[in-house]
Amino acid sequence: QVHLVESGGGPVQAGGSLRLSCVVSGRTNSGLALGWFRQSPGKERDFVASISPSGDSTDYTEDVKGRFTISRDNAKNTAYLQMNNLKPEDTAVYYCAVRPAPFRSSYVSTQRLDYRYWGQGTRVTVSS
Q1: What tens-digit pLDDT sequence spans the chain (128 residues)?
Q2: What angle (nearest 5°) sits at the alpha carbon of residue 86, between those of residues 78 and 51?
């Protein structure tokens, strides 16, 4: 079983920055591809960014390219989402999720259904 805990959310003004963290614990016999998703009230949970088990491959939704950066520190079992130049439309609950993948693979996925384990989310509120 794999357990994920997000943190770092909160209120911020438009143009500001936040860094979300996702701590991963539990046993696995493989690497873990990791994704960040977000969900606004009444909307679907949408893909934001993903990173491969090795950290050498990333992918982003178009809306956040150039503003958000996903990274990971496997020694600390932690992934991050650095969010700069935040906009009111970034307001959402942000979730991290993982799925097994070979340790050295460059596997990333934008698909919510590909991910097996999810955190409880951290809320980000951007005011104008």
Answers
A1: 899 999 999 999 999 999 999 999 997 778 999 999 999 989 999 999 999 999 999 999 999 999 999 999 999 999 999 999 999 999 999 999 999 999 888 999 999 999 999 999 999 999 99
A2: 30
CA neighbor of 86 nearest in space, from 38, 27, 1, 14: 14
User: Which residue shows structure tokens 């969900």?
Assistant: 39
| Helix/strand/coil for 72 | strand
Q: How far from chain centre, in Å, is Cα 18?
A: 13
| Buried-state track 114-127, b at ≥16 Cβ within 10 A, e below 16 | bbebbbebbebebe
